[in-house]
Specification:
Largest sheet: 5 strands, mixed
Structural class: mainly beta
Number of domains: 1
Strand order of the largest sheet: 2-1-4-7-6
Number of strands: 10
Number of helices: 0
Helix content: under 10%
Order of helices and strands: EEEEEEEEEE
CATH topology: Immunoglobulin-like
CATH architecture: Sandwich
CATH superfamily: Cupredoxins -  blue copper proteins
Distance between the termini: 28 Å
Mean pLDDT: 93
Radius of gyration: 15 Å
Low-confidence stretches: none
Amino acid sequence: MSDSPKSVPVSLTVARVPEGGNAGRERYFFVFEPHPVLVRQRDARLTFSLSSESPNYVIEDLVTSDARDQFGVPEVAPSGREVSVDVRNSVTYLVQVALLLRDKETGDTVVCDPQVVCRPPPHTAGG
């Protein structure tokens, strides 16, 4: 993963819980860091990575509600531990994003949905 200014790294931690979770019929709890996810640069690369505290999960897909042609095609790493997507970020936009994970122990699908806000820098004269 790149540390360039256009790289937007996001960590995801997921855990199975007895009750009171925020996903999977309250059987799973997830948290993103940072949250909300704020994309500030044009033509950024958004990368979601599972934290080391979540070894029993793999990312299977990333889906969005993008209707303004801001998100490219998601690329899931062969390890299933991260997914990256290019974001044009040319319009201010709140985008629904869902990461589809699989619990390797139970086979359950877990949907984790960060709040993603695209807020491009203002256009400057001559640029």
